[in-house]
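Alpha-1,4 glucan phosphorylase
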Amino acid sequence: MIKKDTFDKEKFKKELESNVRMLFRRKLEEATPQQIYQAVAYSVKDDIIDNWIETHKAYEKQDKKMVYYMSMEFLMGRALGNNMINLLCYDDVRETLEELGLDLNLIEDQEPDAALGNGGLGRLAACFLDSLATLGYPAYGCGIRYRYGMFKQKIENGYQVEVPDNWLKYGNPFEIKRDEYAVEVKFGGYVDVEMHNGRQKFVQKGYQSVRAVPYDMPIVGYGNHIVNTLRIWDAEAINNFNLDSFDKGEYEKAVEQENLARTICEVLYPNDNHMAGKELRLKQQYFFISASVQRAIAKYKETHDDIRKFHEKVTFQLNDTHPTVAVAELMRILVDEEGLEWDEAWEITRKTCAYTNHTIMAEALEKWPIELFSRLLPRVYQIVEEINRRFVIEIQNKYPGDQEKIRKMAILYDGQVRMAHLAIAGSYSVNGVARLHTDILKKRELKDFYEMMPEKFNNKTNGITQRRFLLHGNPLLASWVTDKIGDDWITNLDHLKHLKVYVDDEKCQQEFMNIKYQNKVRLAKYIKEHNGIDVDPRSIFDCQVKRLHEYKRQLMNILHVMYLYNEIKAHPDMDIVPRTFIFGAKAAAGYYTAKLTIKLINAVADKINNDPSINGKIKVVFIEDYRVSNAELIFAAADVSEQISTASKEASGTGNMKFMLNGALTLGTMDGANVEIVEEVGKENAFIFGLSADQIMEYEKNGNYNPRDVYNNNQDVRQVLTQLVNGFYSPENPELFRALYDALLEKDTYFTLLDFDSYKEAHNRIDAAYRDEEHWARTAMLQTASAGKFSSDRTIEEYAKEMWHLEKVTL
Ligand code: 4GP
């Protein structure tokens, strides 16, 4: 066992040697770095297993309510470092490996990120799992074991190129296949009615099916011996390839079933805040939901007799609308298989499911054509029809004669299944992810639902896990914080407020900024290795890392860089604090404008970084393949955190919290959780700019914004826009960036030009502020000291107490 108090270095070394021998038939000194990683991972897993077993025994014995966090995405990142941190053995393992001449950092780098998610809601799910285990709440994460996760991004000639992410190539040492829990999931066919004991029974016939097989990954709680489970489902062919059936024309069907099994879990759809609407995606949704719900019910029945009390022991949290088919699947099982009456089943379902909304972007709203939905899921569709029929009656009873309400709220409308409406109708709770976002849901996006059932609506402001984003990602700052205030912050982030007494202490300021400097050196080294660019760690590191999306306005950021470059060229003696603009972002593979923006950023970087006349006053870096593992380096090194979405569009943001925790100052709009960040740290300690959410929504309503007015009246804007189409950044093809130019001038959907001056002015404030070293250091420390609210532990406590009504398990 490798526990802090009992860690035995010699035993660990022996285990390591034995693992390398058993797994690879090699001696330690002959093993490749990848083999050493695997061997270390197996030793750590060995240490997890007993706790994992004990945790589940305790859950059963104490019979506590369990949350199933249903999510198409879990953006876990690497597991090894995090597991060792939470087992309290990170430093011991590091030292032991050093004694063997091995560098733990290099070993950690061998692990591929488990990138089973796109961004926001997938990473949130991963933070939530960490917090659930750390707080001791009974929980499963339920998802899909995609064979290929989020693609790897290569930049070639400035363009994004997507490379498949074969993350399972060397196997995943932490997972365990649980064949004993495999279940069948059925697609297609038709529904027949049979009589059973005088009762009608609906039976799906002529279907294709797959075998859903779960793989479990341990989720280790911090220092508490709790180990929860992330259960991800893989699809296998149902092996009914029996030879005599070939004559009966069954051969084709068998082949089709093989294909179905092969394709279903093949790859994650790489869309963030956007619905692709592909049939395979709906298959993925039903696949993992049916499997998870079937298993949850079977597990419940192992120790309980009365299915009518299911909701007392189980809650399903639906991470956005992607898992919403759970509402209908639970109804199907309760009615068709458990033989409950509709009303009883509906009561249980409504008390079991809860829905979180993560975006108001219209293109993200999930709607499935009825034709597709009913063909793929014939019985589930019938159930949705009945849910809809009854829901429409409810609406009519509440608003007699109001057809408009039905048009706006029905689940089935205009040939489509509206998944958000199904989720709301079938849930006991609907929540947004930051206060502003929830207010917008209530007042605008889901207004009718809020008016009809206000009791369901609530807010749960997002959070992040400090174990990964400070303790693991920024070890220097983590140990400095612990030196100052003790280590309670690791499980109670509110304690960071005790740092406030040090913010005016000159020595502390120096120490804090010295750590920041060392982290900047670490990132500069990474940039040199990966981009071949020299950046000065004394410059301001100004970072925008997140998915590439128009509403997040990376375009505004790079336009401002272009403007600054023009200024420096026009005034060579201009006195500015050197600035390194750091970008990191993946664009959905089919998102043209986003990909063009990446090309623009790289084109601007090429030009500016290679212009000796500006003396390195500004540099631009686009970090290739932004992901959880390199994000940890960036957060630790940032001076400025760019959170510049069009107000009202970013539901919450969580990158903003990771930067804050690591002492970066926010340059942001009053959007998402920025509002609450500013509330915690004080408006004077952030660089806030731009139109408010109300102003933006007013413009949208009235349609009275014309970007040409800005263009005509603003010389700086005109100049940078012209440079998009005169070949300044693309001499070989002057028209290359025409689409960006046109989008800005014709519509400017995201108010980039209207916010530009205010953004520019905020940048000036940053330049001025950075010159006052003491004040900057104080403000940076205040960020960390004020970040307590943004722990996912706080968020999960709110979910657990206010919604799920979970109790902690005791070991
Ligand atoms: C994201 C939101 O865009 C982001 O603001 C939020 O912090 C995050 O969810 C977690 O709540 N949405 C998505 C998505 O990831 O695909 O809609």
